[in-house]
User: Which sequence fits this backbone?
């Protein structure tokens, strides 16, 4: 009898442990009180475009009065290089970084990123979170086409469809979008099958142009029939203006913009407050209204730009990015 009671007590502890841990997590408002004691500023090395930042960051400041976001704006690679240079000089200025996961990994490799999972990350799939990062917003690569040049019955339904010979001489793409190969690898669970799909697409004599906005404008102008590396968020606004374009949302590759906290951040509680808020449903709604595509699975973007099936380019993919890039360039004969 005593053994039965002992087992029941152990079972109770195991079952109750997560709930107890959750109960002990301080609320955002409790954390905010600590953050107010840290000079009232958050140094954010963030690649968020100004048009979005002007809508999103003021909402954080409104939600947490007395805290101002010092937004240091530049591209991901430049912000990462700046943080590394400062650290080598013995200074940590940034509290948080918010940019491409590949550049966050560069900081991680230098030992500059804090390992700090946040409670809100539990609501995300494992492909969109890690021990030192949490996906914030996503960029989707999908197929798009000119509706005046592509008949309804010929519209592509997936990335693989662009391997059909009917697309020969009709395709454009961005030469740096290795994410498509990675997505096909995830989709087919085989690098060889992914290579075969891209080989068929390459046989259609793809024309490459740098810049996703340029790709969209080429389609609008009818200078190409279709594109298989287009950003989904480039099309709703153009379609509302009457542009003869469309795009599929059956599937797509996803580039991850993530948030991480710097080791030795000058305002650690403020940094944690921002990271938790940005990952929360509350914060993700603000990002959606600010024109970004929220990474949170329960928060929908304001435009129809999220594919039904998503293939995120994650940490392990980025570790092998050089390998994927080499294959991509070999297939399409790119320099």
Assistant:
């Amino acid at each position: 009898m005593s053994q039965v009671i002992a087992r029941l007590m152990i079972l109770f502890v195991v079952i109750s442990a997560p709930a107890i841990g959750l109960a002990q997590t301080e609320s955002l408002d409790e954390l905010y009180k600590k953050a107010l004691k840290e000079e009232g500023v958050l140094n954010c090395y963030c690649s968020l475009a100004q048009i979005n930042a002007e809508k999103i960051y003021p909402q954080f400041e409104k939600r947490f009065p007395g805290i101002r976001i010092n937004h240091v704006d530049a591209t991901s690679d430049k912000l990462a290089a700046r943080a590394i240079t400062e650290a080598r000089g013995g200074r940590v200025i940034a509290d948080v970084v918010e940019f491409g996961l590949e550049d966050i990994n560069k900081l991680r490799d230098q030992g500059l990123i804090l390992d700090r999972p946040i409670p809100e990350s539990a609501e995300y799939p494992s492909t969109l979170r890690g021990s030192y990062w949490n996906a914030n917003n996503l960029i989707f690569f999908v197929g798009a086409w000119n509706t005046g040049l592509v008949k309804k019955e010929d519209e592509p339904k997936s990335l693989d469809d662009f391997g059909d010979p009917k697309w020969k001489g009709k395709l454009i793409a961005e030469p740096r979008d290795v994410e498509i190969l990675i997505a096909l690898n995830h989709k087919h669970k085989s690098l060889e099958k992914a290579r075969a799909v891209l080989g068929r697409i390459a046989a259609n004599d793809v024309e490459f142009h740098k810049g996703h906005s340029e790709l969209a404008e080429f389609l609008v102008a009818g200078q190409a029939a279709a594109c298989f590396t287009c950003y989904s968020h480039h099309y709703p606004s153009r379609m509302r203006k009457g542009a003869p374009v469309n795009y599929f949302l059956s599937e797509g590759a996803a580039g991850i913009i993530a948030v991480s906290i710097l080791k030795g951040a000058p305002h650690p509680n403020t940094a944690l407050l921002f990271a938790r808020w940005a990952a929360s449903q509350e914060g993700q709604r603000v990002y959606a209204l600010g024109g970004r595509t929220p990474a949170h699975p329960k928060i929908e973007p304001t435009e129809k730009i999220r594919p039904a099936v998503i293939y995120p380019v994650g940490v392990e993919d980025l570790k092998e990015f050089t390998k994927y890039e080499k294959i991509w360039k070999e297939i399409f004969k790119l320099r």
About this structure: The CA atoms of residues 137 and 295 lie 5 Å apart. The first helix runs from residue 2 to 24. The chain has two domains: 26-138+255-309, 139-254+317-332.
